[in-house]
Description:
The protein has a single domain, classed as Peptide methionine sulphoxide reductase MsrA (Peptide Methionine Sulfoxide Reductase, Chain A, 2-Layer Sandwich), CATH 3.30.1060. It is built from 7 helices and 8 strands; from the N terminus they run αβαβαβαβββαββαα. It has helices at about 25-30, 55-60, 85, 110-115, 145-160, 185-190, 195-210, and strands at about 45-50, 65-75, 95-100, 125, 130, 135-140, 170, 175. The protein has a 6-stranded mixed β-sheet. α2 packs across α7 (about 195-210) and α4 packs parallel to α5 (about 145-160). The protein is globular, with a radius of gyration of 16 Å. Residues about 1-20 have low confidence and may be disordered.
Amino acid sequence: MNKLLLIVISAMFFSCNNTAQINPKQQDIINAEPIEVAMQNGKAKAYFASGCFWCVEAVYESVKGVDESISGYAGGHTKNPTYEASNTGKTGHAEAVEIIYDPKIVSYKTLIDVYFASQNPTQINGQGPDTGSQYRSIIFYQNAEQKAIISEKINALEKQLGKKVAAEVYPFQKFWVGEDYHQDYERLHPENPYIQNVSIPRLNRFKQRMPEVLKANH
């Protein structure tokens, strides 16, 4: 995967604890009221950013109750982001996934557990070799209940690790579906060197940590 490495510039360092350095347009996103996505045919949607969306998509599609994981962009202040524009770090967006799931089979709380079990929770602005604000970790909440679940998990994890969790917490506003060639990339391109050396090992580490949530064919 030909990812562009981005040097972290202070003006683009998005942290809720360092709001003086945030682009004013980005601050509006952080302060906005969350938008709740209506369920369709008994299925709900959740949104996460955690490094390369190829990796995250594959992780969530291995989980029981998840119907589909879609790669795209979220968390930024620009419209119609593209892969190339996102990689500049100037759009405010992070590579993200839209998770379509059955809440009767898998809870939102479990999806949060999957999120943290499938990443390095203390890595700032990236995961593994992918660095830059476009790879930062963000959890998008749609209502107060979800926000409370996220806060409880982060607080517990910080106590356990003795370190600050890097994931930012944003009110969900908009998910932009990524380009067609990004969808199901790990499944369609298992021979790709990035998939072999980064995505598959990351998926396997997650499987070892949470085998109880995996689909039978995983």
